[in-house]
Amino acid sequence: MDSLQISLGVIITLVVVALLFDFMNGFHDAANSIATIVSTRVLKPHQAVLWAAAFNFLAYFLFELKVAGTIGKGTIDPAIVDHFIIFGALIGAIVWNVVTWYYGIPSSSSHALVGGLVGAAVAKAGFSGLIASGVLKIIAFIFIAPFLGFMLGSFMMLIVSWLCRNMSPSKVDKHFRRLQLLSAAAYSLGHGGNDAQKTIGIIWMLLIAAGLSESGGHVPSWVVLSCYTAMGLGTMFGGWRIVKTMGNRITKLNQARGFCANSAGAMTLFFATALGVPVSTTHTITGAIAGVGSVRGARRVRWGVAGGIVWAWILTIPCSAVIAAAAWWIGKQFL
Fold it and tell me: How confident is the model at residue 12, as a pLDDT?
């Protein structure tokens, strides 16, 4: 497209909206990072969000921008990207996040954004506007990420149970109270490293379309810094409606189980980020919590609650895509 069609005012507005989404992502997904340490009373809620937010931001210094590259260049054809597609994608993701936050549903901000991109791209160019390999890889990890979290959570819980078999429950809790702080920090690093990069990818996509950045070049440092900052600030405000669902309704957690769930989730996120795959932190930690609970027996996991969460996962991409397509049409008519 002709980059001159995008005015500076439009670019600034869309960057602000993208950072608002990033803030909401941190706000919406704060429960993923802090639910275990809050529900096990390792930290008070206000302490937990500050802990998580700090490590969200520290991810800025540790991770390559592979996930941003996947979002920016690996999901939809860069040739069709314009400000209407970015607008539609962001509105689709934000609206779906608000709806699921309001009802306390731990859905995926990541997949809401991917669904928004897909919906806006299809509205403009049909299915030929999608890069099938990138979209299918993201869809595959809807199932792979929670499965990995489940298996790693189960495995770690078995190891911890064996190692602590001769220890008193009070001594186990004392040790894992400290260790849980480290596992929560690791999970928050993974959350920041994967999720903040999705907004980086969106803004980079916009700048490329506007001719202000090159597809083969580096992401501007101000984009990276502002996205990590917005994510951290969002986490500080916390999505309290979702904490209860994640912390206690799936399975009852203690310090050792919380440590295993966070550690399993962190390992899964580090793996996906290294591959450059945008995954859902919600899916990951839900799978890990269910895996930890299943070690004590299938009845220890409230599968009905988990099933409701899975339905939210299934609906996220198509629902945000439909909203984004409608927003794209409205943008074309009135903006």
Answer: 92
Contact predicate 285/187, CB 8 Å: yes
Identify the sign of the CA torsion 231, 235, 236, 240: positive
pLDDT of the residue at 158: 93
**The pLDDT value given to residue 20:** 92
Using one digit for the tens of pLDDT, what is the confidence trace for 262-293? 999 999 999 999 999 988 887 888 888 888 88
Q: What domain range is 295 assigned to?
A: 3-334
Q: Which residues of the chain have pLDDT under 50?
A: 1-4, 245-248, 250
> CA 318 to CA 111: how far, in whole Å?
10
Tally Cβ neighbours within 10 Å of residue 163.
11
* 184, burial (CB in 10 Å: exposed 0-12, middle 13-18, buried 19+): buried
pLDDT (0 to 100) of residue 171: 84
Question: Residue 221: in which H helix or E strand, if any?
Answer: helix 221-237
Q: Sign of the CA dihedral 179, 185, 189, 194?
A: positive
Residue 4 exposed, middle or buried by CB count within 10 Å (0-12, 13-18, 19+): exposed
* Helices (H), ranges, 103-220: 109-125, 132-163, 169-209
Which string of b and e fits 116-139 if b means at least 16 CB within 10 Å? bbbbbbbbbeeeebbbeebbebbe
Total domain count for the chain?
A: 1
